[in-house]
Design brief:
Length: 219
Protein backbone atom coordinates (compact mmCIF):
# COMPACT_ATOMS: atom_id res chain seq x y z
CA UNK A 1 0.00 0.00 0.00
CA UNK A 2 1.27 3.47 -0.89
CA UNK A 3 -0.47 6.51 0.59
CA UNK A 4 -0.92 9.27 -1.97
CA UNK A 5 -3.47 11.46 -0.17
CA UNK A 6 -4.36 12.42 3.38
CA UNK A 7 -7.69 13.65 4.71
CA UNK A 8 -8.17 15.33 8.07
CA UNK A 9 -10.93 15.94 10.53
CA UNK A 10 -10.89 19.49 11.96
CA UNK A 11 -12.29 19.76 15.50
CA UNK A 12 -10.16 18.11 18.21
CA UNK A 13 -7.76 16.88 15.52
CA UNK A 14 -6.12 19.95 13.96
CA UNK A 15 -7.90 22.65 15.99
CA UNK A 16 -8.84 22.73 19.66
CA UNK A 17 -10.72 25.17 21.91
CA UNK A 18 -8.87 26.95 24.70
CA UNK A 19 -11.95 26.61 26.93
CA UNK A 20 -14.25 23.70 27.69
CA UNK A 21 -17.03 23.41 25.14
CA UNK A 22 -19.60 23.29 27.94
CA UNK A 23 -18.39 26.72 29.07
CA UNK A 24 -18.47 28.05 25.49
CA UNK A 25 -22.09 26.93 25.12
CA UNK A 26 -23.01 28.41 28.51
CA UNK A 27 -21.47 31.77 27.58
CA UNK A 28 -23.32 31.78 24.27
CA UNK A 29 -26.71 31.05 25.86
CA UNK A 30 -26.13 33.77 28.44
CA UNK A 31 -25.19 36.26 25.73
CA UNK A 32 -28.36 35.43 23.77
CA UNK A 33 -30.63 35.44 26.86
CA UNK A 34 -31.43 31.80 26.24
CA UNK A 35 -32.04 29.05 28.79
CA UNK A 36 -29.08 26.84 29.73
CA UNK A 37 -28.52 23.99 27.28
CA UNK A 38 -26.58 20.80 27.89
CA UNK A 39 -23.63 19.87 25.73
CA UNK A 40 -25.07 16.36 25.37
CA UNK A 41 -28.37 17.67 24.01
CA UNK A 42 -26.51 19.98 21.64
CA UNK A 43 -24.41 17.13 20.23
CA UNK A 44 -27.47 14.93 19.79
CA UNK A 45 -29.32 17.57 17.77
CA UNK A 46 -26.17 18.63 15.92
CA UNK A 47 -25.80 15.07 14.61
CA UNK A 48 -29.13 15.47 12.79
CA UNK A 49 -28.13 18.73 11.10
CA UNK A 50 -24.74 17.92 9.57
CA UNK A 51 -25.83 19.13 6.13
CA UNK A 52 -27.44 22.38 7.30
CA UNK A 53 -26.36 25.82 6.15
CA UNK A 54 -26.07 27.17 9.70
CA UNK A 55 -26.54 26.21 13.36
CA UNK A 56 -29.89 28.03 13.50
CA UNK A 57 -31.96 24.84 12.96
CA UNK A 58 -29.99 23.17 15.75
CA UNK A 59 -30.90 25.88 18.22
CA UNK A 60 -34.47 26.05 16.93
CA UNK A 61 -34.89 22.41 17.87
CA UNK A 62 -33.18 22.81 21.23
CA UNK A 63 -35.13 25.93 22.21
CA UNK A 64 -38.44 24.36 21.18
CA UNK A 65 -38.31 22.41 24.46
CA UNK A 66 -38.44 25.64 26.48
CA UNK A 67 -40.87 28.48 27.07
CA UNK A 68 -38.50 31.18 25.87
CA UNK A 69 -38.38 34.16 23.55
CA UNK A 70 -34.69 33.58 22.78
CA UNK A 71 -33.96 33.85 19.07
CA UNK A 72 -32.30 30.73 17.57
CA UNK A 73 -30.39 32.75 14.98
CA UNK A 74 -29.03 35.13 17.62
CA UNK A 75 -27.96 32.15 19.71
CA UNK A 76 -26.28 30.54 16.69
CA UNK A 77 -24.36 33.76 16.05
CA UNK A 78 -23.37 34.05 19.71
CA UNK A 79 -22.10 30.48 19.74
CA UNK A 80 -20.14 31.07 16.53
CA UNK A 81 -18.47 34.13 18.09
CA UNK A 82 -17.58 32.22 21.25
CA UNK A 83 -16.06 29.37 19.23
CA UNK A 84 -14.06 31.83 17.12
CA UNK A 85 -12.66 33.44 20.27
CA UNK A 86 -11.59 30.08 21.70
CA UNK A 87 -10.40 28.05 18.71
CA UNK A 88 -6.65 27.61 18.15
CA UNK A 89 -4.64 25.33 15.87
CA UNK A 90 -2.53 22.47 17.12
CA UNK A 91 0.95 24.04 17.46
CA UNK A 92 2.85 23.87 14.19
CA UNK A 93 -0.19 22.82 12.16
CA UNK A 94 0.21 25.32 9.31
CA UNK A 95 3.82 24.52 8.29
CA UNK A 96 3.00 20.85 8.90
CA UNK A 97 0.18 20.99 6.34
CA UNK A 98 2.36 22.90 3.90
CA UNK A 99 5.02 20.22 4.18
CA UNK A 100 2.56 17.38 3.64
CA UNK A 101 1.25 19.05 0.49
CA UNK A 102 4.69 18.75 -1.12
CA UNK A 103 4.26 14.96 -1.11
CA UNK A 104 0.53 14.20 -0.78
CA UNK A 105 -2.81 15.56 -1.82
CA UNK A 106 -4.18 16.95 1.44
CA UNK A 107 -7.85 17.40 2.21
CA UNK A 108 -10.24 18.30 5.00
CA UNK A 109 -13.60 16.69 5.70
CA UNK A 110 -15.36 18.25 8.68
CA UNK A 111 -18.83 17.63 10.05
CA UNK A 112 -21.11 20.58 10.63
CA UNK A 113 -23.20 23.36 9.13
CA UNK A 114 -21.56 25.29 6.30
CA UNK A 115 -21.44 28.72 7.94
CA UNK A 116 -20.11 27.38 11.24
CA UNK A 117 -17.29 25.30 9.81
CA UNK A 118 -16.26 27.75 7.09
CA UNK A 119 -16.07 30.45 9.76
CA UNK A 120 -13.67 28.25 11.74
CA UNK A 121 -11.39 27.95 8.72
CA UNK A 122 -11.45 31.72 8.26
CA UNK A 123 -10.71 32.26 11.96
CA UNK A 124 -7.75 29.88 11.76
CA UNK A 125 -6.51 31.47 8.54
CA UNK A 126 -6.84 28.11 6.78
CA UNK A 127 -9.02 28.95 3.80
CA UNK A 128 -6.12 27.91 1.54
CA UNK A 129 -4.39 25.43 3.85
CA UNK A 130 -5.71 22.33 2.05
CA UNK A 131 -5.90 21.16 -1.52
CA UNK A 132 -9.54 20.35 -0.80
CA UNK A 133 -11.66 21.56 2.15
CA UNK A 134 -15.09 19.95 2.45
CA UNK A 135 -17.75 20.86 4.99
CA UNK A 136 -20.71 18.50 5.29
CA UNK A 137 -23.02 21.52 5.24
CA UNK A 138 -22.17 21.68 1.54
CA UNK A 139 -22.68 17.93 0.99
CA UNK A 140 -25.53 15.43 0.83
CA UNK A 141 -24.39 13.56 3.94
CA UNK A 142 -22.11 13.87 6.94
CA UNK A 143 -19.59 11.50 8.48
CA UNK A 144 -19.74 8.53 9.03
CA UNK A 145 -21.84 8.14 5.87
CA UNK A 146 -19.69 6.70 3.03
CA UNK A 147 -21.17 9.38 0.77
CA UNK A 148 -19.21 12.05 2.68
CA UNK A 149 -15.94 10.16 2.28
CA UNK A 150 -16.70 9.49 -1.39
CA UNK A 151 -16.95 13.25 -1.89
CA UNK A 152 -13.52 13.68 -0.32
CA UNK A 153 -12.02 10.99 -2.54
CA UNK A 154 -13.57 12.53 -5.65
CA UNK A 155 -12.11 15.93 -4.84
CA UNK A 156 -8.70 14.52 -3.94
CA UNK A 157 -8.67 12.31 -7.02
CA UNK A 158 -7.38 9.41 -4.95
CA UNK A 159 -8.31 5.77 -4.43
CA UNK A 160 -9.71 4.75 -1.00
CA UNK A 161 -6.88 2.33 -0.16
CA UNK A 162 -4.29 5.01 -0.98
CA UNK A 163 -5.94 7.66 1.18
CA UNK A 164 -5.32 8.02 4.92
CA UNK A 165 -7.93 9.74 7.04
CA UNK A 166 -6.86 11.32 10.33
CA UNK A 167 -9.42 12.01 13.04
CA UNK A 168 -10.37 11.44 16.65
CA UNK A 169 -13.99 10.30 16.66
CA UNK A 170 -14.40 6.52 16.83
CA UNK A 171 -17.66 6.46 14.88
CA UNK A 172 -17.59 9.47 12.55
CA UNK A 173 -13.90 9.39 11.67
CA UNK A 174 -12.44 5.94 12.26
CA UNK A 175 -15.37 3.61 11.56
CA UNK A 176 -16.62 5.95 8.83
CA UNK A 177 -13.28 6.01 7.03
CA UNK A 178 -12.81 2.27 7.45
CA UNK A 179 -16.26 1.49 6.06
CA UNK A 180 -15.51 3.71 3.06
CA UNK A 181 -12.27 1.85 2.38
CA UNK A 182 -9.88 4.61 3.54
CA UNK A 183 -6.98 4.00 5.94
CA UNK A 184 -7.98 5.43 9.35
CA UNK A 185 -5.47 6.99 11.73
CA UNK A 186 -6.87 7.85 15.15
CA UNK A 187 -5.74 10.91 17.08
CA UNK A 188 -5.73 10.35 20.84
CA UNK A 189 -5.76 12.87 23.68
CA UNK A 190 -6.57 13.03 27.36
CA UNK A 191 -10.31 12.85 27.90
CA UNK A 192 -10.93 11.87 24.29
CA UNK A 193 -12.35 8.67 22.79
CA UNK A 194 -10.77 5.31 23.55
CA UNK A 195 -8.46 3.79 20.91
CA UNK A 196 -10.42 2.02 18.20
CA UNK A 197 -9.26 -1.39 16.97
CA UNK A 198 -10.44 -0.36 13.50
CA UNK A 199 -7.70 2.27 13.20
CA UNK A 200 -4.67 1.32 11.13
CA UNK A 201 -2.56 3.42 13.48
CA UNK A 202 -2.90 5.61 16.55
CA UNK A 203 -1.06 8.81 17.40
CA UNK A 204 -1.31 11.20 20.31
CA UNK A 205 -2.39 14.71 19.37
CA UNK A 206 0.70 16.09 21.10
CA UNK A 207 2.86 14.06 18.70
CA UNK A 208 0.71 14.37 15.58
CA UNK A 209 2.88 16.97 13.85
CA UNK A 210 6.12 15.07 14.45
CA UNK A 211 4.93 11.48 13.96
CA UNK A 212 2.34 11.53 11.19
CA UNK A 213 4.80 11.81 8.26
CA UNK A 214 6.60 8.71 9.54
CA UNK A 215 3.32 6.83 10.03
CA UNK A 216 2.25 7.61 6.48
CA UNK A 217 5.52 6.20 5.19
CA UNK A 218 5.01 3.01 7.21
CA UNK A 219 1.45 2.32 6.03
Amino acid sequence: MTITAVGFDLDETLAVPTRERTAILADATADADAPPLSREAYLDVHSRHLTSDSRTPIFEELLSEYDTEADPESLANAYRREIADALVPVPGAEPFLQGLRTKYRVGLLTNGPRTAQRDKLTTLGWTDAFDVALVTGDLDAGKPDPVAFASLLDELGSAPGETAYVGDDVDADIAGADNAGLVPIQVLYEGGPEPSPRAAAHVSRAELIDRLPELLEEL
